[in-house]
Write a structure and sequence with these properties.
It comes from Musca domestica. The protein is α/β, with parallel strands linked by helices and about 1100 residues long. The protein has 23 helices and 23 strands. Helices cover about 60% and strands about 10% of the residues. The strands form six sheets. A six-stranded mixed sheet has the order 1-23-4-22-21-9, sandwiched between helices. Helix 7 packs antiparallel against helix 20, helix 9 (about 400-475) packs antiparallel against helix 17 (about 675-740) and helix 22 runs parallel beside helix 23. The two termini are about 45 Å apart.
Length: about 1100
């Protein structure tokens, strides 16, 4: 439809909707020209729940009493700036449950009360006569919402069409709005002027994307799904708690079942007691029977022994004669075996000698054969050499010999010059370089060893510092730990030994634990002067105590303190006669030491002479009182001077004046400041660690140099060997040339041929000897095999004879021993027989008594019941009987009877079964929720993409109505929505950023974007404030036409547009223009 929009003077007449009884400074008029006669025909078609039918404002902002009736399709609210258009929009937001902050006008609702008034009221009528009305039987075709705002509070009232109050709860209002999908806080559907201006001005991609999410309610859906995900996690925790509860219920049921078993067993305790008593009675019978059987077994054993003894005594002579005959027979057999052994042994010796002779001959023949083979080889070689020599010499002559002699002499001269001028100097030079490299390597290895030694010392110091730090830290709670971890236990052992009387007097130690120094500036120098060894030492009263303490020290590893033996005293020595009177500026060491134990103080006096040592901080004073004999105080032994940097200078007085200096270590034992000592030790440890790192660096550098030097040494040695081989080859060649004989060859060949003939004759003789020797060797080896077999046979025979002789010896010895036993034990047999007969008589009496006892026990047990075999012993049965009697005496384990207990267990099991069913249902529901959440998250992702695609298509189509080119770029990862627009009559390559557009083009693009968003969702109404604020007439016309066309296409949605621009429209039955009066100007 084509609309012509023109500027038109505002109609001064018309019906006034303001109440006559409550005049206002605003006037709302209705343009009746926009209403056609056919308005009623469209009412049925555009009915929808949730549309705004009427708003009534009382004392709200600039309105005292304003009533606005809205058309169900399209409404234009026209009025100048300040006429109260935005107040209507703010009232809509507040009246439908929105917050004051959402209006962008105030943070408090009471700020909207008209000046001079104490309260304001907003009344909004919603349509409820469309499809799917909200509780129509209660509310009817309309829902009236009234919000009252006072200076101190506010309230809501929800009424039906008839004006009856239905609810005053905000939650009911929210349910109505949610049911009709009303979102007053969604700027897509309710866009106030501040949001519109900011939106038109910025069009930021991130804000556009948030608007897209809010318009499509995807943000709400995502929030709800996220809440559901958290709810799922909470339910999972509840499910775990449910599992624990079920487990406890099962344990409770098991406990009650155990109680039921105990209760049932209690009912049977009397039967159990009776059975146990029967078992005990028969167990006693069994014990008596076992004892009777033992007596019977012993009787049989001693009876057998009695018969043996009687036989021995009766058959003594017969046994003696039999044993003597057997001994003689065995000795004769042994004599025969011995003679046979001698015979076989002689034969074995003869064979052994023969075998040795054969081995000797074999060795001789083999040696002879080797010698002959070597002679043969040597003769063959000599014959071959002679043949070659004859062949060579027969081809030459004497002139060739002289020429060769001259050539060889020249060659020798050249070789000598080469050796002296090149090879020998090079060898000397290589030897010098090799020596330098070897010395360098040795020096570097020495340096490496020294670095390693220092590094080991450094690491030992680091470990020592670590141990000292640990001891100092531990000594914060127990000072004695500064002397070692073993010291508390050692002192405990010493005190325990003293309480047992092992020590004559309790040993004192460590000495340092008894010593304090009040003046902190002298603490370090005094500890260094006393010495670590003495501070760790122990004092004992006598030598015996010393031996006991030394033995105790062996229990502890690395515990070897000094032990000082000195008589204990209760008084400190009187040293007034040998004490030094300290001059001004000095202090006596005796006075600086605080010691509560007289024995320890006397030890320090004896060992160090502390009464004769002075302390001072002045070097001049020390030199004055020690370097001049007239200034030396009486009894002075030395003066200790503490200088800065922990340096101690020690002066000895005249006549043996001398001075020494040493570094003072911080005090470790005497009255130590724990924190300061730990800090000092850690600094020392860090310094040592840095030193160790420098050692590692130096060691690495030096170690890397050694392989290089080693490689050079190897190269020089190889070169030296090569040059020495060259020199040796030259000298060998010279020697070879010098040793050449230049003979006269006239008769030499004949002599050589004769010599070769002699060699060949000798060779034939040697070959004959070799053949003969091989034959002899073969015969000897065959004979050796035969003799070896015979020798082995004789060895086996000798071993058999030896075994027989040993068997005869053993048998004879045994029988002789038995024979002596027969002679010597006749009287003992008689004594044993008497003893055995006494035992038999006693066993007979015991057997008779035990048989009577068995009969009595059996009779008593039979009276109690039939025989029962038990695996328990008598004591165990007695214990069980005692337990059962105790249970019977104690009474029932629970107050319930078995039937009640069964009923209670059944009830608990039923409850458990029901809870398990609930658990399974909850578990299934939770898993279904998880599955549903996964499905809905996937669906939400697809919905985003679908809505974005729909938005892009709608936006492009609306832009093309004005021949604009444009697109929407939606990035779900970066959460941005960027608008790209190219106005008509522009190059396609023109800049498409919305910031480069004019105000009208930007407004049109914005409206196009909003309409695209409207097309993606469904909402009962849309309010748009000052949509044309930055536009020109042409774009405003197109935008208005576009909005009216949107209202025409969507009759089920209500549109309301607020604008300060007056307008006249062609008569349309779905459009209503509402004009606000001019504001009163002060």
């Amino acid at each position: 439809m084509s609309l012509s929009l023109v500027r038109k003077r505002r109609n001064s007449g018309g019906g006034v909707n303001d109440s006559q009884t409550a005049p206002t400074k605003r006037r709302l008029t209705q343009n009746t020209s926009t209403q056609s006669q056919g308005a009623n025909t469209s009412i049925i078609q555009d009915k929808r729940c949730g549309k705004i039918l009427l708003m009534h404002l009382t004392n709200f902002m600039c309105h005292s009493n304003l009533t606005v009736e809205f058309h169900s399709r399209v409404n234009f609210l026209v009025g100048s700036n300040g006429s109260g258009k935005s107040a209507i929009l703010a009232a809509l937001v507040l009246g439908l449950g929105g917050s004051a902050k959402t209006t962008n006008r105030s943070r408090s609702a009471k700020a909207f009360i008209k000046n001079g008034e104490t309260s304001a009221k907003i009344e909004i009528v919603l349509a409820n006569d469309g499809a799917q009305p909200y509780e129509p039987d209660i509310y009817g075709d309309k829902i009236i919402i009234v919000r009252t705002i006072s200076l101190s509070s506010g309230s809501y009232v929800i009424k039906s069409e008839s004006g009856q109050v239905v609810s005053k709860k905000v939650d009911d209002l929210h349910r109505i709005l949610m049911y009709h999908n009303v979102q007053v806080d969604n700027p897509v559907f309710v866009l106030n002027q501040d949001s519109a201006r900011e939106f038109l001005k910025e069009l930021e991609p991130s804000k556009n994307y948030q608007l897209f999410l809010k318009a499509t309610q995807i943000d709400v859906v995502h929030e709800k799904l996220t809440d559901s995900l958290h709810l799922h996690k909470d339910h999972m925790e509840e499910l775990k708690n449910y599992e624990i509860r079920l487990k406890k219920e099962k344990e409770d049921i098991a406990e009650h079942e155990n109680k039921l078993k105990e209760l049932l067993s209690f009912e049977k305790l009397k039967d159990v007691l009776k059975r146990l008593e029967i078992e005990l009675a028969w167990q006693q019978v069994k014990q008596c029977e076992n004892q009777l059987q033992e007596i019977s077994d012993k009787f049989a054993k001693y009876d057998e022994k009695e018969r043996e003894l009687k036989n021995l005594i009766q058959n003594k002579d017969e046994v003696y004669q039999i044993l003597s005959q057997e001994i003689r027979k065995d000795e004769e057999g042994m004599t025969l075996k011995n003679s046979n052994f001698d015979k076989v042994n002689r034969e074995y010796r003869e064979l052994k000698n023969k075998d040795d002779e054969i081995n000797r001959l074999t060795s001789e023949f083999k040696n002879s054969l080797d010698i002959l083979k070597k002679k043969k080889s040597r003769l063959e070689h000599q014959i071959e050499e002679i043949k070659k020599y004859i062949d060579e010499k027969s081809q030459g002559n004497q002139d060739d010999v002289e020429t060769l002699r001259a050539q060889n002499q020249n060659e020798i001269l050249k070789l000598r010059q080469q050796c002296d001028s090149h090879v020998v100097p090079m060898i000397e030079n290589i030897k010098r370089e090799l020596k330098l490299h070897i010395d360098s390597k040795a020096q570097k290895e020495q340096v490496v060893n020294e670095i390693k030694r220092r590094q080991r010392e450094c690491l030992d110091e680091i470990r020592l510092r670590s141990g000292q730090i640990a001891n100092v830290k531990a000594s914060a709670k127990n000072k004695i730990l500064i002397y070692g971890n073993h010291m508390p236990e050692l002192l405990t052992d010493i005190r325990k030994a003293h309480s047992q009387g092992l020590f004559s007097k309790l040993p004192r130690g460590p000495i340092g634990s008894y010593v304090d120094v009040a003046n902190s500036q002298y603490r370090d120098v005094i500890e260094n002067s006393i010495g670590r060894g003495l501070l760790e030492a122990f004092i004992v009263n006598n030598t015996k105590d010393r031996q006991i303490l030394e033995k105790m020290f062996t229990k502890y590893e690395n515990c070897r303190p000094i032990i000082i033996t000195a008589a204990f005293s209760d008084k400190v020595y009187d040293v007034s006669g040998g004490c030094v009177n300290p001059p001004k500026g000095t202090h006596l060491l005796l006075h600086e030491i605080r010691c509560s134990d007289a024995t320890v103080m006397n030890c320090l006096i004896d060992r160090l002479g502390i009464e004769s040592i002075l302390l001072t901080n002045s070097k001049e004073i020390a030199e004055t009182i020690t370097s001049y004999i007239e200034n030396v105080p009486k009894n002075l032994s030395r003066v200790l001077v503490l200088k800065e940097g922990n340096i101690c200078m020690e002066y000895y007085p005249k006549p043996k004046y001398r001075m020494y200096s040493s570094k003072v270590r911080p005090a470790n034992y005497i009255q130590v400041n724990i924190e300061e000592r730990i800090r000092h030790l850690e600094n020392e440890k860090q310094s040592l660690e840095l030193k160790n790192k420098s050692y590692e660096t130096d060691l690495s550098q030096m170690s890397n140099q050694i392989p290089q030097v080693t490689k050079l040494i190897q190269e020089q040695r190889e070169l030296l060997i090569k040059q020495e081989n060259t020199r040796r080859e030259i000298m060998e060649k010279i020697a070879e040339l010098d040793n050449i004989e230049y003979a006269d060859y006239s008769n030499e060949i004949q002599l050589l041929e004769k010599e070769m003939g002699d060699y060949e004759t000798h060779l034939a003789q040697i070959e004959q000897k070799i053949s003969e020797t091989r034959g002899q060797l073969s015969d000897v080896e065959n004979e050796k095999i035969q003799v070896g077999a015979e020798l082995q046979s004789k060895e086996n025979e000798l071993q058999e004879i030896k075994n027989d002789i040993e068997a005869f010896k053993s048998t004879v010895d045994r029988k002789k021993m038995k024979l002596r036993s027969v002679n010597n034990n006749d009287s003992s047999y008689r004594v044993k027989l008497s003893e055995v007969q006494d035992v038999i008589n006693k066993l007979k009496a015991d057997h008779k008594e035990m048989s009577r006892k068995v009969d009595a026990c059996t009779k008593a047990a039979a009276e109690k019941g039939e025989r029962i075999e038990s695996d328990l012993s008598g004591d165990q049965l007695q214990d069980e009987i005692s337990k059962v009697k105790a249970k019977i005496k104690h009474g029932k384990p629970v107050s319930l009877d078995p039937q009640s207990m069964r009923q209670l267990i059944m009830t608990k099991k039923e409850a458990l079964l029901a809870n398990e069913g609930k658990y399974e249902n909850i578990k299934h529901s939770i898993y279904s929720l998880r599955k549903s959440l996964r499905f809905r998250f996937d669906f939400l992702k697809k919905l985003k993409e679908h809505m974005a695609l729909l938005l892009q298509l709608s936006f492009s189509m609306i832009l093309r109505l004005r021949n604009f080119e444009g697109s929407l770029d939606v990035n779900h990862q970066q959460k941005t929505l960027k608008l790209s627009v190219i106005p008509r009559d522009h190059n396609k390559n023109a800049v498409s950023d919305t910031k480069s557009l004019s105000g009208g083009e930007r407004s049109y693009s914005t409206v196009a974007f909003l309409i695209s968003l409207w097309s993606c969702v469904d909402h009962p109404f849309c309010f748009l404030d000052e949509y044309d604020v930055f536009t020109d007439e042409v774009n405003r016309e197109y935008m208005t036409r576009l909005l009216i066309d949107e209202g025409r296409k969507r009759p089920l949605r209500q549109y309301s547009f607020l604008t300060p621009q007056d307008m006249a429209l062609m008569s349309e039955d779905f459009i209503k223009i509402l004009r606000l009066g001019e504001p009163e100007r002060g």
